[in-house]
Amino acid sequence: MLFCVDIGNTNITMGLYRGEDLVAHWRVSTDHLKMPDEYGILLLSLMARQGYQPSDIAGIALASVVPPVTDLFLEMLDTYIGVEPLIVGAGVRTGVAVRYDNPHEVGADRVVNAAAAYRLYGGPTCIVDFGTGTTFDAISATGDYLGGAIAPGVRVSAEALFQRASKLPRIDLSRPRKAIGTNTADSMRSGILFGYVGLVEGMVERFRRELGPTMRVIGTGGLARSIAQETDVIEVVDLWLTLRGLQIIYELNRGAQ
Fold it and tell me: pTM value?
């Protein structure tokens, strides 16, 4: 089986593939203070609960935007799995032509998402990824990565509001009953949740003007489903898009390993 890992600033997403089938998946918090052994024990526990063991893993594909945690994970994988991973970066075939001014500035996760979105849904496509930042990525009709937009993530914005406004509380991001909040917590929830819906709708419309009316919109990331429930501009919610992209890229590079 193939073990896929996406290390983000907030979460680490992991999954096991048997062929093209995602047979197990997990999402855990990114913790810079964890030791490799702690990540190893966590991984073994998660796998055991699903009935898998390290010897089941024949390949590893990894993408990361957090170099310090990447180093911890590589040490853990060497100790507990013993399989050298394919790390998405320079020199790795992705099947995606990056048309950014400086291609090295594009996060590995965005390229991986592009590879999966084009393979699964075609182009032109806008990928909206709700992570630490909310990213909008444009994929052309021929599968090229054209660029995108980056906004603060939903949780980052909520936390910033709490930290910078002395009278505003820290809140959960549950859906308010209506847009006009009648207490401080619901007013904040309305502004954050429905405000982000407006952000998504506005950005998607701008992307559509540039990519054309046939553009599809794919939502991914931890809060994709919550936002998609409030708008019809997100056509598909694919929570494990990045893992699928890693599986696709691993297969592209398999013969070169």
Answer: 0.90
